[in-house]
Structures are given as C-alpha cells and as structure tokens.
TrEMBL record:
Cited Pfam families: GGDEF (PF00990), PAS (PF00989), PAS_3 (PF08447), PAS_4 (PF08448)
CDD domains: GGDEF, PAS
Domain PAC as annotated: residue spans: 85-138, 213-264, 460-515
GO biological process per UniProt: regulation of DNA-templated transcription
Transmembrane regions: none
PANTHER family xref list: BIOFILM ARCHITECTURE MAINTENANCE PROTEIN MBAA (PTHR44757:SF2), DIGUANYLATE CYCLASE DGCP (PTHR44757)
Domain (GGDEF) ranges: 544-664
SMART domains hit by this protein: GGDEF, PAC, PAS
Protein name: PAS domain S-box protein
Domain PAS: 8-81, 139-209, 265-335, 386-459
InterPro entries per the UniProt record, alphabetical: Biofilm_reg_signaling (IPR052155), GGDEF_dom (IPR000160), Nucleotide_cyclase (IPR029787), PAC (IPR001610), PAS (IPR000014), PAS-assoc_C (IPR000700), PAS-like_dom_sf (IPR035965), PAS_4 (IPR013656)
Species assigned in the record: Hujiaoplasma nucleasis
Length: 664
C-alpha cells in the first residue's frame, strides 16, 4: 500500500510542480516521509544531506516556537477533529536562516480500527509575503508609539469641523477625555475670538487643496486658562475629492508668555529710550544714525532727520575723524566693545561738545550710550541695557526623535534631531545612543544606559527636565526630554523612542527678565518691587528678632546741582558700598533716589547701634570735597512678629528723619 501511495505521490508531484510547491507523503505507522525536489529546494538541502526521511527530520527542521502549533494541528487531524491540516511555520534553511512555509495536508488512508495510516500534503514558500507582513506590522506599531508619545496633538476632522481622530496628547495636554471630543466640532474648544480665524484656516485648505499653517490660536484647558497653540494641516483626499483635514497642533503657551514679557520689556526700553537724558543711538555699518533719541536734538540743535541723513563723521571735529573711523571699524567689523572713548561733536551753533561714549556691536548695528561731559551734566545711568532687534519666531522645526533597539543601538533619527545634535542619519544609524546623545544634569554626566534600563523595566514613559545636551560640535543646549518604550504586539519592549527639544533660549530669557525686574542698576541692591515680593520671607518667625534700618543720603540734590549727576551717582554707589560692608544681611534695598532700607537678624539693639557707629566711622574716613557723603540713620528693633512689618518700616523712617535734623 505504501508503494501505491508513492506511485500516487508521483502523479501528485506533477501537479504540485506546476504550482512550484513542495510535496510530502507520510507513513504514519512507520514514521517514514517521502518528499519531492521542491520541498528540498525551499530549505536549501539536497536529498543526500537529509536521508533517511522520517518525521524526526521534520521535527528537527521546524522552529521550536512553531512545533507545538504544527503538532496541535496534526493531532486534530489524526483525531478526526478536522479533515484538513494547514499551518504557517518556520523551517531552518541550510544557510542558517528561517524560511516561512505554508504546510498543508490531510490523511488519505485510515485502518479498519480508525487509525491514520497515510497522510499527504504540500509546502508552499510564503517567506517573502510573511516578511513583508511582519515589516508592515512593525512599522504600524512604530508609528503608533511615536504618535502616542509625541507632545504634539495629531488630529483628523471632517469637512464640518468634527474631530474623527485625536492622539492621546489631546487629553494629556488639555485634560478633555477623548470620548467627549470625538465626533464633536472643534469650535466648542476654541476661544470665541479665534473661531472665525480657524474657520478661514480650514476653508483656505479646502479651497486651495494645499497644506496651510496657523501660527497662534487658543484652546480651552479643562481645568485651567486658555492655552496657546499653533497648527498646520493638509487636506484628506478620497477618489480625488477632499473629505476632511489632517493636522498637528503644538502647545506654544510658554513661548507666548515669555514673548509677551519680552515685548513688555521692549516697550519699557522704548519709553526709556525716548525719555532718557543720555545720548542714545543705534548706528548702522555705514556709520549713519539708524535711531537716535531726543537728547541728541536737545544737545546739538539739529533735527532728528538732519542727524540721520548725514554720516556721523560730518558732525565731528576734524582732529577726531581718523580715530573715530578706526573705532567704528573695530566695533562693526571686529565685533569689539568700546568704552570711555571721547570725541567732539559740533552743534548747530558751531560749538563743540565733548561726548564720552560706549559702543557695543550687535548684528549689523552697534549701540551707543553717550553723555555730554562738556558741562559735566551726566546721565545717572552709565550704560543702557541693549535692546535686541529681532522678531522672535515660532519654532518651525518639530521635536527631535531618536529610535533605538532594546540595547540602545540607534535604528532611526529624524531631521529635527539631526539639526539639534549635529549628526546626520547615516552617521548615527547602528551606533550606541550614548555615542551621540551626551547629556548632563546639574553638571553631572547622566548614564543613558540607566535611563533606558528604567524605561524597559517599568514599561512606561519617563520625562526628563533640566538637562544639558553636548552636541557633536561640543556646544551645549538645555533640553526637555521624554523617553518611552516601543512595544510589539505581545506587549514586549522592543526598543526606545526619545523625543526632545531645545529650551535653552526660554531659560535664558526667563533669567534675564527676572534679574532686570528685581535689581537697582546703580547699586545692585534690590528695588522696591522686590521688597513687596520678599516681605513674607522677612516676617517669617525664624527671622526674629529683627532690625529694620532706614538710611537717607543728606543733601544729594545739592551735590547733583553743584557737581553734576555723575558725582551724585558716585555718592550713591559709595553709600551702598559702606552700607554693604558694615551690615551682615541678605536684604539690601534702594527704595528711592537717596533712600536705603536694610533688614538684619539682630539679637539686640546693641548690634544696631554698633552698625551705626561703624557706618559713621567709614563715612568720616571717606568724606572730602570730592566725596561730600553723609547718611541719616534710623532703626527700629522688633522682638516679636506681632508688629506689622510696614509699621516697623514707618518707625525706622521716623527715627531716621529725627537723625537727619542733626545734619541741617
């Protein structure tokens, strides 16, 4: 009977050969197997290399993970549970690789007592299709992980403006549950003033059939204030007809807040530019005034238009032209700062004024602060803060994204990441992440291996803030970073996705704004604004007993009138120097032109009197016609917190004014 099936299998082989399939005949009782040439070709072996053919030959070639699948299917066939056997399994190729095949068969002869005798079947090579299927599945999982872990909101909507898809970032950023948003109009979540703008935005996409961008609009946060967003979107086509929109939205609230603060600061500087008694100007690379303030007009008598229409050197004394040209060249082309340079400017009446000035380069301009020292009328500010001339733009580049395998070897990197770290994709692929992504926290190196290990172990994203990235060119930038695992369909971590962005400028601008708002430019003491902010720290019970010291420079107006404001500024600085030298405190304030306030932790009044004596001593050693400095001094000693701090300041002021009478 086995021979008859061998003969039958030869006829079967003619048919399967036409199908380019392998065939097999299995004598279940003897465990022998007969296969055709195509069966062998699929796995790269010759007949001689595998003989004798038994069921063990099959078992040894099948992937261990697939063997049970095959055995289960065969058992169902043998036990009459199914009439046909078909499974997808991997077989070991001679070259060591695994080949996917479709193994199909059935029992064609049974014994009289119902035992299976002979089974026949085919092998079809499905390796290419299977690999393509697995690759597609991986790419689908990979894309899903990126979408779910990016901080940007990815959305789709129909032509009526109803959301048909939203990424998890919507709920993470705005707290609205997705089920309350999907299939609802975007208008319910947009600021009323911005709805018309967004309607026009989507209308433009529909009418132009092209990608569009919108730089700023507001979305409603479930629990908080309105959040600022920017978006870009493109039309979705079906059979050549637009059926909706797909887009991405990014939260720019922090940037808008910082920009608003900067704009406010710029406006303040503009006001100061116009009202300052200093000679302020912005000069272009050709030596023309680009912008000047009224002080130039008041001093020289020319109109602003006359001053801007002629080169600076035409207003100079002829003996100063050569040196001034050299100075301008150093500032513009060599980017050097110039300070304390003096030259003579001719006024409309032919008189020359000696002007001392300082110049700082910035881009194609240099910024000038000058003062007329001819009449010794100097502006109390010796340097105006530079106003940056740029229009802050929104970040047009998306977050940097780097993908690694589970060992931290880079498998993908996007264009934004290339730009941020300085490495091209071809340089980065196949390298350990640590070789191109060098990060520090609080100046200490952070091991990426530890971060990756934590994410893999806990199987959840990790956000990292306040870290420094060392780029390819040894430059440093502050970044925000999130690291998230990539899962396969069995919820096993197969890699890591890192999403990061440059926040260096945001942090720098925040520090600049904070410093400018709290300090007096002349003495580096805190200003009155900071007093209101820090008063709660001072009235903390641990700070008591407390000494409140009020001081006032005597006859400062007379010094300014008789000697000029530069002498007055010198007196103020000298007073601040003596005060700081003799008082151990973290709380020094200049609260007026000639007024100072100091809070000091004091166990008794003796210390406050001792401070007064030491200040009088140092002032007496400093006093001269060149420095006619004297200070009125008053204090109040507060043992308990039951005295209102502002009442304490009034008492200290009152005592100071009593002391001031002695100097009249």
């Amino acid at each position: 009977m086995w021979r008859e099936y061998i003969h039958s299998s030869e006829q079967l082989n003619i048919m399967v050969d036409a199908m380019n399939a392998g065939s097999w005949v299995w004598n279940i009782q003897s465990r022998d197997i007969m296969v055709n040439q195509r069966w062998l070709e699929i796995i790269g072996y010759s007949k001689d290399e595998l003989e004798p053919f038994t069921i063990d030959t099959w078992i040894n070639l099948v992937h261990p993970e697939d063997l049970k699948i095959s055995e289960d299917a065969l058992n169902k066939l043998i036990n009459h549970e199914t009439d046909f056997y078909s499974v997808e399994v991997r077989m070991k190729h001679k070259n060591g690789s695994w080949v996917w095949i479709l193994d199909s068969g059935k029992v064609v002869e049974w014994s009289s007592n119902g035992q299976p005798m002979i089974a026949i079947g085919t092998h079809i090579d499905i390796n290419d299709n299977k690999e393509l299927q697995l690759k597609y599945k991986y790419n689908e999982i990979f894309l899903k992980q990126i979408i779910e872990n990016t901080k940007d909101i990815i959305y789709r909507m129909d032509l009526q403006g109803n959301f048909t898809y939203l990424s998890p970032a919507w709920t993470k950023n705005l707290k609205h549950p997705l089920h309350q948003v999907l299939n609802h109009s975007f208008k319910a979540f947009v600021h009323p003033e911005d709805i018309h703008m967004l309607e026009d935005f989507f209308s433009n996409i529909k009418n132009s059939s092209q990608h569009q961008e919108l730089t700023k609009f507001r979305l409603k946060h479930l629990d908080g204030p309105w959040r600022y967003y920017q978006t870009s979107a493109s039309p979705i086509f079906e059979n050549g007809i637009i059926i909706g929109y797909a887009g991405i939205a990014r939260d720019i609230s922090d940037y808008v807040s910082i920009n608003q603060q900067l704009q406010a600061q710029v406006k303040e500087l503009d006001v100061f530019f116009e009202v300052s008694l200093d000679l302020l100007a912005i000069v272009d690379s050709k030596g023309f005034f680009y912008r000047i303030n009224q002080s130039w007009v008041d001093l020289l008598g020319y109109s602003i238009e006359e001053l801007k229409s002629r080169p600076i050197i035409e207003f100079l004394h002829e003996d100063d032209i050569k040196m001034t040209k050299s100075i301008i060249d150093n500032v513009i082309h060599k980017k050097k700062e110039i300070a304390d340079y003096i030259n003579r400017y001719r006024s409309i009446d032919g008189q020359y004024h000696y002007i001392e000035w300082k110049a700082i380069p910035y881009g194609e301009f240099f910024y000038v602060s000058g003062r007329d020292i001819t009449s010794e009328v100097q502006i109390k500010k010796d340097l105006i803060n530079q106003k940056k001339h740029y229009e802050a733009t929104l970040m047009s580049v998306g977050d940097g994204i780097i993908v690694t395998d589970i060992l931290g070897v880079i498998t993908n990197i996007n264009k934004a990441a290339e730009k941020l770290i300085g490495f091209k994709q071809k340089e980065a692929l196949g390298k350990p992440l640590s070789s191109i992504f060098d990060i520090y926290r609080n100046k200490h190196f952070t091991k990426l291996e530890d971060i990756i290990s934590k994410v893999v172990k806990e199987k959840k994203p990790l956000e990292i803030h306040d870290i420094t990235l060392n780029t390819k060119f040894s430059s440093y930038m502050q970044i925000d970073d999130s690291v998230a695992p990539i899962f396969d369909d069995e919820n096993q971590v197969t890699g890591i996705v890192i999403v990061f962005r440059d926040v260096t400028k945001e942090l720098e601008n925040k520090k600049k704004i904070e410093y400018l708002s709290y300090h007096d430019y002349l003495t580096d003491f805190y200003n009155r604004y900071y007093l209101e902010k820090v008063v709660n720290e001072i009235i903390d019970a641990s700070f008591y007993p407390l000494g409140i010291i009020s001081m006032d420079i005597n006859d400062l107006k007379s010094v300014n009138d008789n000697y000029g404001h530069s002498k007055g500024d010198y007196i103020i600085k000298k007073a601040a120097e003596i005060i700081r030298k003799n008082i151990d405190s973290d709380y020094f304030f200049r609260i007026g032109g000639d007024e100072f306030l100091v809070f000091v932790h004091s166990k008794n009044k003796v210390l406050l009197e001792e401070i007064h004596k030491n200040i009088i001593r140092d002032i007496s050693q400093t006093y001269s016609e060149e420095c006619p400095l004297s200070l009125a001094y008053g204090y109040v000693y507060v043992e308990k917190t039951d005295l209102d701090i502002y009442e304490g300041i009034k008492l200290a002021d009152s005592n100071m004014y009593e002391n001031k009478k002695k100097y009249k």
